[in-house]
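User: Hey, quick favor. My workstation is busy. Could you predict this chain's structure for me?
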Amino acid sequence: MAARTARKAAKAREAPAASRSLSLYDGRDWLGNIVERDGKFVAFDTAGKTLGTFPTLRQAADAVTDAQRERAARIAPAPQPPARRAARSTATPGLAPRRKQGKSRHAA
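Assistant: No problem, here it is.
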């Protein structure tokens, strides 16, 4: 029995520390991952690039969010100037202009 307990204790010492893996989303959009290792938090973006190791979960989440904002700013098209409005017509929409009163063009 003592040998069995000693083996369990040895396995417990050899086993790596349990780590958490978290995914960050903004609605349906995946922003990145955070993995906890040895009490520190490692942040990754959507491409798997390491953003750094942080002492708190909050700092790691902020790094993932900031990386996504920078990526979105690079991808976003340049703002376009506002479109010019067409000149407004004085005619009532949907109505044909009135003909002048007088002789008919079709009279024989």
